[in-house]
Amino acid sequence: MEGSVSPSSSLFEAGTEYRRLHAIALQNRPEVDLQNEEFAIAVLQHDKSSDAAVSSDYLWFKVKAKHSVSKIKGAYQKRTGVKVDFKFAHKPTGDGVQMRDLNHLKDNIVVFTAVEEAMESTPTSSGARRTPLQSLNTQLSASPNVSITSKDSAPVKVEVSYASPYSVSPAVQVKDENGDLLPRSQISVPTRNTPTSSASTTRNLSSNPPASTAKNEAHNVEDTSMAEVSDVSATVSSTKQPSQHERMQKIIEKGSPEELEAEMRRSQRFLEKLKTPLVDMASVNRDARHWIQQIDGLLSHKLDTPTIIGVVGNTGAGKSSVINAMLEEERLVPTNCMRACTAVVTEMSWNSSEDESEKYRGAIEFINHSDWEKDLRISLTELIDGSGQVSRDCTNPESEAGIAYAKIKAVYPQKTKEDLASSTVEQLMNEPNVKAVLGTTKKIAKSNPEAFYRALQHYVDSKEKVTDDSKKKKEKRETEWWPLIRVVRIYTKADALSTGAVIVDLPGVHDSNAARAAVAAGYMKQCTGLFIVAPINRAVDDKAAKSLLGESFKRQLKFDGTYSRITFICSKTDDISIVEASDTLGLEEATAADWQRIDELEKEQKALKQSVKDLRESRGVYTELINDADDAMEVWDTLRNEVEDGKTVFAPTDASKKRKRSTERSSKSRKKAKTSRASSDDEDDFIDDSDDEDGNDLDPESNSDNESEKGDPLTIDAIEVELAQLKEDKKRARHEKSEIDAKIKKLNQELKTSEKAQAEIETAMSALCIEGRNNYSRAAIQRDFADGIRELDMESAQEEDPDQFNPDDQLRDYDEVARSLPVFCVSSRAYQKLSGRLQRDNKVPGFRSAEETEIPQLQAHCKKLTEAGRASNCRAFLTNLSQTLNSLRLWASNDGTGLNLSDAQLAAESRFLKSRLKTLEKSLDSAVKDCLKEMNEALAEHIFENYDQLIETAISEANTTVSKWHRPVNRDNRALGGFYWATYKAIMRREGVFSNAQGPHDLNLQLTEPIIKHLASHWERVFAQRMPRVLQSFTRSSKNLLTSFHRDIEARSMKAGAGSAGIALLGQQLRNYENIFTQLTNQMIEAINNLQREANREFTPVIARNLSTAYDWCAKESGSGCFARMKSHMASHVDSSRSEMFRESCDEVRNRLLNMCKQVEQSMGLQTDEIFMKMQRDYTEVVSGTQLPQGQMMPKQERKMRSDVAEIIEDFERESAEAQAAAGAAIAAVNEEQNNWADSTIEKSLDTTSVVKEVKAEPSPEDGREAPSLNVAANNADVSMD
């Protein structure tokens, strides 16, 4: 809603000053728990300065979200005894503004500044606002000389070419002493200068007794002069706020989907309140029942409008991964389901449940009994061979028997081949577990995605993964449900689905299960958007934009008029070779410097690694020296101990050292060596060769030789000298080793830095190549798509008029067709990794931010696709609401006293109105008939008149098409025709439609191809161009009729001198009725498109019905020569029935289209008549009024009901205006704050650089302040009317 602040907005950022006051208040916040929809309100007391405020200066109040400013002011006055006004962010705020609208910091805490009211305040518009609004007085003079609005008020615009001479201003509602709405007649208003009728013939304003008598009645109120009315009206108008009508029209015309939805929610709450006074009188008052019915009709209008987006793509295209990434889930959509999952339609939509245990919900819908019986019968027929046994081909998963066996075995896992061969369809259908699920829906609800995924997989996953027969025999297999699933529905709180998008993973319309194929086909007709997914490395090479769609698919798009609904998604953009991509994309020069730098870094890394290796070898030498010193010190320590004990010892020989190491080092020395290694600063492992010394190879006989070499006995001093030397040697070795460790650590750090630099360069190169391939692929796909459309257009143009065909003629702007195709090149794996998911996967190179994966852009595109439907839905509601409120105003203002006209004048006005209404009704009926006539003519000219020629073409090509089926199989080019016997048999069993590894086969479609192919362009011309023009012409004609009618009534009213205010309001109402006609046209265009999509798919079902007997005959044929007999019978049947079946097919479509026209005519007639009846009621209310017998008044209860309705409408409009004013004040405050911040930033920038090129709204590094945001969500107002 324009000019108001949404309570749910996350975009608003309050100014710095407000944040300061807010922070001070929080320092002394009372300890109180705020429940849902509860607020804590802090008010800076009126005698405290905001500049020097402290936390104790605030008073706190606990209120509800729906409470208004006036309620808080009352509580403050009661507490302090001082009457104050409140300021919010230094701006005054309206009394009607609710707390939920001021929750800008999203903490349910609002801070006000109290300002004491002046002792003598002048009357303001707010005071006038408290006076209930007077119902519109249709007696006010029509004279343009008597102004009923302020001079600043602009006249109400009805249409650019027409402006009413009247304008509407809020009138004053006058009540008597009992609080009842005063009858209009008791307000004396001078009329324009027309001859005054005599007392005996002039109707009194109230049709009541004379004024002297009336003054003595209970409703004793003095007359109000016209001057008084004008003064108050001028006071109300002086606020210069747009009227409710203007505000509503602006929202309807220019509002965003979010603004429109917020206004719709607010209006629905208001309508609930509006019903209250009417419900009390519904049992005794017909008008009350009528308005309740109107209000209920508006309340039944649903806010949610689902937008269905189909996702299609070949196996392995990455559809599931893309969808999971869009939904911000690592694994939600069923995957790894082999044949099962690819056949299940999976629908994902927004989860509206607020229950934490139901954050993820699912519904698995199973096919019904008859669908499974039909599927099972066909599968058993293909599985059992002519001998009555299971076919040997059942082990081949690509064969028809293999597919059937996998399906049946999944549902009946305990059945052996012998059991299946002897089982009937009826016996299998009566299996208890299968019978129990058919036709049911299984619901799942979990609080976390992992548990939900596992629960879902239980139903949709294929467990046929064990290849060891011995394991299969040991494990008891459970029933698998995937063959019985019709559709899986998943409900989750993904942001991409929050605006009503419904993503549907479509496996295709040629599923072997007829029920699932029907579901997929049904979704295809409903799709607002169609996402086509293909891996990027095949999308361009295979010309996927042309070939992936297929000729029949593109032609169907042409029939449906849904080219603009296509979105192409290139998946797996992370699958790229930098060398290949740079060569293919011509990026050698751009990457040459990077490659050179990588070569340098690799050489540098090689040198560093060699240096580290050499240093590690040196470190090993010093480690050995340290270990040897430790061993020797142990020996000398032992010798010293022995000398101290009085023993005679000799210097140890090398052999004794070795012996010592071989016996003792296994414990102490090895432990010391380990400690020495652990103390190294280097974290890398190294090998200590000291353990490999051969200490056990000593010759025992050498002991005798050593005895003679002992020398002189050792003394304590000699031992101490030797130990000191060993310690010095060890110290030097440790020092050298530490230096080497430091060098290794430094080299390793340099190596890591080099490797990181190389990784960054490779990432940048990958990003460059990915971006280059994305741009190339995007342009190529768009070009291929446009070329595919051009080919279809050229083909149709050539066949339509070969003599005039010019291939150089551009039948449409193909450059625009190319540009209009959205193409997203995405990497779901990189996005998931950057989002913190897929923890066990390696980092995906080439992506530095989530935006580079294009998943966020795809999510935004998904949400944007919902905007048109959401906006259209809300505009329809608000248009009808505006019309209903205007009608209610007219009704509430009518008190039963009639107009200031004589009986003769009133009768004349009534006759004139009836005459014009009758003319309008006839004119509108004629406009509907003319519209339908043009529609029928368009169908006849472009479609029906071509039937004869198209039927003859189809008849002449039918036998050629059948002969193509019966050709020998061409293994090199299967497209040339011909089927193997098993495939042909499978096609016959499925009434001409079957899909296998070679793709889909539809014999019925192939027979109707000549008709559909030649009719596509004509069809598109009718439904994409001609029909909308016809309906738009109807809208213009209807608007002209309404305008002409209103002008006649308006001119008559001016002449009669009565009802100017009511006529002015009808001028506003005229705009609503015109919008309703525009809305009607859009509804009819949508209805026609839906009906024509049904009709254009009826060509092939008729062919299938005509060939059903032949299909059945061929399916039952068996034995020697059966294949030849099947071919012969089919060829004969097509030849004999071709003329009749093609004509019947076209007649079926013709009847469908004619019925479409009848439905449209009926719908247009009903809705046009409904509009007319509403207009009749409104204009009758104003021109004729509600008449009561002379001397009587409307019952008090009814007058009170009308008064209450008028008050509720007035309150609604007042609160809307106040909310708009509050939002405007908040925007102004933020604007001022932003300007101040920008000025200070500029000054600081000038001080340092003296030149300012650009001032960005980013945090200032000098003072740390944030620039205030101007993203005020003032358009999402949702003011509560509770």
Architecture overview:
Residues 657-675 have a biased composition (Basic residues). Residues 681-706 have a biased composition (Acidic residues). Keywords: Coiled coil. Residues 121-150, 185-215, 232-242, 1272-1282 have a biased composition (Polar residues). The structure is a single chain. With 1282 residues, the chain is of the alpha/beta class. The chain has 40 helices and 18 strands. A hairpin with a 2-residue loop joins strand 3 and strand 4 (91-92). Residues 1-13, 119-162, 166-239, 336-342, 465-474, 658-704 and 1245-1282 have low confidence and may be disordered.
**What is the helix tally?**
40
The chain-level structural class is alpha/beta
Number of strands: 18
Q: Percent of residues in helical segments?
A: 55-70%
Radius of gyration: 44 Å
Mean pLDDT: 76
Largest sheet: 9 strands, mixed
Note the beta-strand portion: 5-15%
Main β-sheet, spatial strand arrangement: 11-10-12-9-13-8-14-15-16
Shape: globular
Q: What quaternary form is this? A: single chain
How far apart are the termini? 18 Å
Low confidence ranges: 1-13, 119-162, 166-239, 336-342, 465-474, 658-704, 1245-1282
Main attributes of the structure:
coiled coil; alpha/beta; P-loop containing nucleoside triphosphate hydrolase protein; P-loop_NTPase; five-stranded mixed sheet; DUF7605; 1282 residues; disordered C terminus
How do the helices and strands line up, and which of them pair or pack?
Elements: H1 16-26, E1 38-44, E2 58-64, H2 69-80, E3 84-88, E4 91-92, E5 109-116, H3 125-129, E6 157-159, E7 162-163, H4 211-214, H5 226-237, H6 244-254, H7 257-279, H8 286-299, E8 307-313, H9 319-326, H10 338-343, E9 345-350, E10 360-366, H11 369-383, H12 400-411, H13 417-422, H14 425-429, H15 432-437, E11 441-446, H16 449-460, H17 469-474, E12 485-492, E13 501-505, H18 514-526, E14 529-535, H19 536-539, H20 544-547, H21 551-560, E15 566-571, H22 578-584, H23 588-644, H24 654-664, H25 668-678, H26 702-707, H27 716-800, H28 814-819, E16 823-825, H29 828-834, H30 855-864, H31 867-893, H32 903-942, H33 947-965, H34 981-989, E17 993-996, E18 999-1002, H35 1003-1056, H36 1060-1096, H37 1099-1106, H38 1108-1116, H39 1122-1183, H40 1196-1249
Parallel strand pairs: 1-5, 8-13, 8-14, 9-12, 14-15, 15-16
Antiparallel strand pairs: 1-2, 3-4, 3-5, 6-7, 9-13, 10-11, 10-12, 17-18
Helix pairs in contact: 6-31, 7-8, 7-31, 7-40, 8-31, 9-29, 11-12, 21-35, 23-25, 23-27, 27-35, 31-36, 31-40, 32-35, 32-39, 33-35, 33-39, 34-38, 35-36, 35-37, 36-39, 37-39, 38-39
